[in-house]
């Protein structure tokens, strides 16, 4: 019995002491050596050594000033048997009544323009055919372009226009005699402003370049704010067509002359719906090009195009 028990105890003791050693050795083998880890090759760092490696090829900054052509956003015809204007349910006034630019209750008319309510002894309107207009004024534009290719760039655009809003009506001195009709201004807002901001995709037409002048055309979209002094702002989304001519003045500096044509729906309170309106601006300014490519890569790319 002892002969069998003693070998069994020795075997049990050996296993008891040996298993932790084996596991310890196993853990030592599985743990990577820091020195060996440092010797492992890291993934190669991408090298920007050719034109196509750069997503953005450069930036442009343009500032220009110019002329806003103005636009009518309400253009009513003379009332007659076949001319009728419905009421805006949210604007509690009569069919012919117009909204004032500076509402006041001091004179008893409140929001309604007095001239739009005047009638003669025969109950005919004294004033008719109302027009509301954003007058011509000064325009200032800022564009920041991001070149994604040689000729294509995305432009962040912003514009500020100082204008004047007015209301004119046809004064019917003699209701039955059109020769006596005279259009007169009956209300105005000298503090009318326009703000535009958006994004445009532009193309520099290098193949059409002549005498150092490069045509530039594109289209954009964005938001517009028509701001009055007293009335609430009229906001909308616009679509815009852009055209410009760039003339090389110095290296990376161009003289720019352009025209922008924007169209949008202008909400008209008197009608209860929106009229399509077009804003056109003409401007001239400077454009700076900021190159982000290393000189050698830019030179190699320009040489490859020849």
Write down the secondary-structure element order: HHEEEEEEEEEEEEEEH
Can you give the mean pLDDT? 83
Low-confidence stretches: 1-29, 87-94
Helix content: 10-25%
- Helical segment tally? 3
What Rg, in angstroms, do the CA atoms define? 37 Å
User: Which descriptor suits the 3D outline?
Assistant: elongated
Strands of the biggest beta sheet: in what spatial order?
1-6-7-10-11-12-13-14
Strand content: over 45%
Q: What class, by secondary structure content?
A: mainly beta
**What's the N-to-C terminus distance?**
102 Å
Describe, in plain words, how this protein is organized in 3D:
- It is a single chain.
- The protein has 306 residues and is mainly beta.
- Helix content is 15%, strand content 49%.
- The strands form 3 sheets. An 8-stranded antiparallel β-barrel has the order 1-6-7-10-11-12-13-14. The chain has a 4-stranded antiparallel β-sheet with strand order 2-5-8-9, with no helix packed on it.
- The protein is elongated, with a radius of gyration of 37 Å.
Short description:
The chain has 306 residues and is mainly beta. Helices cover 15% and strands 49% of the residues. The longest helix has 29 residues, at 2-30.
């Amino acid at each position: 019995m002892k002969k069998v028990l003693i070998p069994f105890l020795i075997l049990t003791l050996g296993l008891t002491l040996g298993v932790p050693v084996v596991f310890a050795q196993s853990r030592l083998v599985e743990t990577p050596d820091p020195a060996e880890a440092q010797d492992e090759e890291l993934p190669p760092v991408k090298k920007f050594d050719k034109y196509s490696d750069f997503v953005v090829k450069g930036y442009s900054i343009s500032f220009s000033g110019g002329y806003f052509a103005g636009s009518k956003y309400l253009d009513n015809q003379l009332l007659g048997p076949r001319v009728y204007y419905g009421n805006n349910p949210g604007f509690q006034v009569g069919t012919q009544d117009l909204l004032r630019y500076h509402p006041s209750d001091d004179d008893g008319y409140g929001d309604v323009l007095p001239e739009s309510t005047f009638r003669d002894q025969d109950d005919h309107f004294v004033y008719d055919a109302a027009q509301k207009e954003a007058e011509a004024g000064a325009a200032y534009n800022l564009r920041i372009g991001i070149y994604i290719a040689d000729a294509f760039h995305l432009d962040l655009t912003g514009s500020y226009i100082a204008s004047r809003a007015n209301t004119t009506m046809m004064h019917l001195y003699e209701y039955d005699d059109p020769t006596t009709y005279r259009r007169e201004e009956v209300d105005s807002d000298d503090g009318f402003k326009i703000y535009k901001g958006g994004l445009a995709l532009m193309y520099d037409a290098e193949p059409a370049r002549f005498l150092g002048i490069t045509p530039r055309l594109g289209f954009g979209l964005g938001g517009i704010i028509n701001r009055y002094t007293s009335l609430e702002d009229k906001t909308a989304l616009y679509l815009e067509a852009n055209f410009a001519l760039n003339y090389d003045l110095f290296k990376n500096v161009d003289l720019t002359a352009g025209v922008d044509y924007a169209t949008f729906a202008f909400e008209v309170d008197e009608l209860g719906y929106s009229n399509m309106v077009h804003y056109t601006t003409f401007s001239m300014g400077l454009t700076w090009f900021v190159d982000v490519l290393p000189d050698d890569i830019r030179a190699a790319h320009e040489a490859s195009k020849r």
